[in-house]
Amino acid sequence: MEILFIAGFAPIVPDPKGAQLFYRDALGLPLRTNAQNPDYVAMDDFPGAKHFGVWPLADAAQSCFGTREWPASVPVPQATIEFELRDGDAVDAAARELEARGHTLIHGRRTEPWGQVLARLLGPEGLLIGLSFAPWLHEAK
Fold first, then answer.
1. How many CB atoms lie within 10 A of CB 124?
2. Residues 83, 50: contact at Cβ < 8 Å?
3. How far is CA 110 from CA 46, 51, 63, 88, 138, in A?
4. What is the DSSP letter of 114?
5. 133: buried, middle or exposed (CB in 10 Å: 19+, 13-18, 0-12)?
6. Where are the beta strands (DSSP E) in 58-138?
7. Model's pTM, two decimal places?
8. CA 109 – CA 90 distance, rounded (Å)
9. Rounded to an integer, what distance in angstroms lies between the CA atom of residue 79 and that of residue 118?
10. What is the mean pLDDT of the chain?
11. Which of 117, 106, 36 shows the shortest CA–CA distance to 75?
12. Residues 19 and 10 sit within 8 Å (Cβ to Cβ)
């Protein structure tokens, strides 16, 4: 078997309308309604994934909260997705915009030890959402 790339990613959501408000309206993703199933929104022309990993929960907790234990007061995510932005200032602006819309961030803009700028929050279904600027993804090849 030869896997070529990530063909698709979709959070499985218990509240389709609430998820649409978050992903389409709050994050601004150009999701379109499917004629056969109006609760399913998607986009097929989104640039591909640049990273796939299997992230231990203890590492996610360390990155989000500075501790190896995920806090009992925060739902444990089943997956993470990071949306790449143009630069660190865009990460900061997006985080402020989401907070202004009433979304609670796990943490605002910060720079990870490896140089990636991130802000994180949980999506309505518990998916860990990263607003990211990874400088190495913007370097000329």
1. 20
2. no
3. 26, 20, 10, 9, 18
4. T
5. buried
6. 80-84, 105-111, 117-122, 128-133
7. 0.85
8. 10
9. 16
10. 90
11. 106
12. no
Q: How far apart are CA 74 and CA 86, in angstroms?
A: 29
Secondary-structure class of domain 51-137 per CATH: alpha beta
**Contact indicator for 22, 122 with CB cutoff of 8 Å:** no
The CA-atom distances, in angstroms, between 24 and each of 7, 113, 130 are 20, 31, 16
Shortest CA distance to 104 belongs to which of 28, 29, 22? 22
Domain positions in the chain are 15-46, 51-137
Contact 36, 42 (CB under 8 A): no
Residue given tokens 């994050």 in the structure block: 27
User: 22-55 pLDDT, tens per residue?
Assistant: 999 999 999 988 888 888 888 887 777 788 888 8
